[in-house]
Amino acid sequence: MSVTAARSGPPWLRLGLRLAPWSSVLVIIVLWVVSTATGSVSAQFLPSPAAVVDSAAELARAGQLWSSVSVTVTRGLLGAGVGIAAGILLGVLAGFTRWAEFVLDKPIQIVRAVPFTAMLPLLILWIGIGEETKVLLVVLATAIPVYFNTFGGIRNVDRKLVEAGKVYGLNAYQLATRVLLRGALPSVFIGIRYALGITWAVLVLAESLNAVSGIGFLLTNARQYGQGDVVILCVVLYAGLGLVTDALVALLERRVFRWRQAHRGV
User: Fold this and answer.
1) How many domains is the chain partitioned into structurally?
2) What one-character DSSP code corresponds to residue 21?
């Protein structure tokens, strides 16, 4: 049976189709459980899933788990929100006019070429070691991919659509928002999904520096004291945040483009 036919099949078949992409993850978890339970892998090298769950329960009872997650989520969403908005705005400006491209594109290219590990000391030198540095690092990390995807999407919009908009009397703002930005939305969503994924990776770096809260703070302390179960827990939390935010953006994308009959695989 093809995937297309399965989507219109009975509920249990549709549920199986939704869970199928997670089968490889399930296999990894089973191998993890078996290898730690049989002792073929040292607990010091790889703690068991039960040990990770126990550590999560202990941190949750102490109130440290949820407070750390909430701090990291706040930092991530604040920085990503500002960065995504800035990336879309700059991408629309550079994509709409050549003069804006001449002014904006090369500086953004330079920022893109600088590794985040090199950018962080510069931000510390300029604004100090504080909350602003962590959020600003996320802003820079998220704005860049959104800018390039927005810019590229706008430049790939059919020129005839712009000409038709001018014929109907649209002004510059209406052309940029109603024609170019709408035409570039598929590329914009790709940039947003990539930006949200990189948000949590950047926070690992940002929260490992002089932080007193957040998942990165837990991760740094666990690494210093050799708590492998807490280290794995922090990695799982970061991965979970990435999956949740990506799923939410993908859901929004499907709703925005529910009219589009795109290829979904065979």
Assistant:
1) 2
2) G
**What are the DSSP calls for 167-216, one per residue?**
HTT--HHHIIIIIIIHHHHHHHHHHHHHHHHHHHHHHHHHTTSS-SSSHH
d(C-alpha 231, C-alpha 216), whole Å: 10
SS3 at position 39: coil
**Is 41 part of any domain?**
no
Question: With helix as H, strand as E and coil as C, how does 214-254 read?
Answer: CHHHHHHHHHHCCCHHHHHHHHHHHHHHHHHHHHHHHHHHH
Q: Are residues 71 and 24 in the same domain?
A: no
pTM across the whole model: 0.83
Question: For the chain, first and last CA: distance in Å?
Answer: 10
- Residue 128 maps to a domain: yes
Residue 11 domain boundaries: 3-36
3-state helix, strand, coil in the chain (%, to 5): 80, 0, 20
Q: What is the mean pLDDT of residues 115-136?
A: 84
**Tokens linked to 78:** 């604040």
Residue with tokens 């930006």: 195
Considering the domain architecture, whether residues 24 and 116 belong to the same structural domain is answered as no
Residue 262 backbone dihedrals phi, psi, to 5 degrees: -85, 160
* Contact of 180 with 96, CB cutoff 8 Å: yes
How far apart (Å, rounded) are the C-alpha atoms in residues 70 and 40? 37
Least confident of 8-17, 207-216, 220-229: 8-17
